[in-house]
Amino acid sequence: MNTQPMHSGPTKDCTLYPELGPDFGDPGAGLRRIAAAAGVTLAPLRVTASTPPGPVTIVVQAERGTVHVVLERDRREIQVDLTMPWLGAALSGHAETLTDVAQAIDEWQRGDTLTVIAGRRAWLTASPRAVAHEEGRAAEYAWGVAREETAGRWNGPLVEEAYNTQELRRLVPFLTHGRLTFHRAPAPPFSHDLFEIGPADNDGWRVGGQGTPLDTHAVVPTVAEAIALVVQALPPDCSPPIQASGSQLD
Length: 250
What we know:
Blueprint: H1 27-37, E1 45-49, E2 56-61, E3 66-71, E4 78-84, E5 88-95, H2 98-109, H3 114-120, E6 124-126, H4 128-134, H5 138-150, H6 156-163, H7 166-169, E7 172-176, E8 179-183, E9 195-199, E10 205-209, E11 218-220, H8 223-232
Antiparallel strand pairs: 1-2, 2-3, 3-4, 4-5, 5-6, 7-8, 9-10, 10-11
Helix pairs in contact: 1-2, 4-5, 5-6
């Protein structure tokens, strides 16, 4: 008599993933069972498969962020990616077993820091950006990225001058579409109430409110003047950086 349970979702080859044998190749049921055996209670999960048949992905939707566990179809390979809202990648790597995966997810769900999890799990690598945000170094990290991206380029002097301005170094810089914008917080919601700087004709700079019409922006010939206009327009409560409230949003 066939004792295989009814299961319409994607399955894995138990030759490649023998630990899924008791679950008839069902990766979601297998991870739940393996986690339970390790004393781990998983957040809600779902299983998806690519079309045409390819890797199967277990998606665990934890409060802290989403975990993607990708099981390759033609070889034994377990790719794990843990992501945080807005920030994206936080931890990633290749696990040897689903028990390793369950234990990493447990540490993720209970709020262990990224550096602690990566320290315990040599197969996981933490994102420097996510670690900086977690450790309260988001502005410092963002400035480092901005300076590196613009070194030797046309907007390099602008970024360096802003970085060397105490009032602006406390803020979080973003480079987008040729504009240098500043925010009080490293992640949404943003207040959008600070001035931005962008290129103007004749190697000048335009300075004005984020999202306001370009013809309302002031145009100045030098980086120093552009930086001065931004600093003069800073709200009194602009330092240290704060998380925007709903009333501050555009």
